[in-house]
Amino acid sequence: xxxxxxxxxxxxxxxxxxxxxxxxxxxxxxxxxxxxxxxxxxxxxxxxxxxxxxxxxxxxxxxxxxxxxxxxxxxxxxxxxxxxxxxxxxxxxxxxxxxxxxxxxxxxxxxxxxxxxxxxxxxxxxxxxxxxxxxx
Length: 136
What we know:
Layout: H1 10-54, E1 57-62, E2 65-70, H2 72-83, E3 90-95, E4 101-110, E5 123-132
Antiparallel strand pairs: 1-2, 3-4, 4-5
Helix pairs in contact: 1-2
């Protein structure tokens, strides 16, 4: 006569449980990586828009010296032109605080590539960059 233990079949349940945990962890890691890359992309677009905005200066002559001066409209125009290439990006603010540097804020919305219960449906990402014109 065989003696039956009470834990028969529990290894299968543990295996299934650990497999579900591993799959959930992989899905969260994929979404976290996608979020990280989206934030880096948003920052890169903000950097490019600020750099283009810093090149949107108007050149004038004051006292016999050439002067490069940034205007709010020039910075905004250049920033919008750069972000237009990225359909999901939008310029929140584009300004020149001192007439020599351009500060641009760009926003986008991130959605997870793999829908998981542990990850929100979407996150608003925002990045700000500042660039100074090379001319004085």
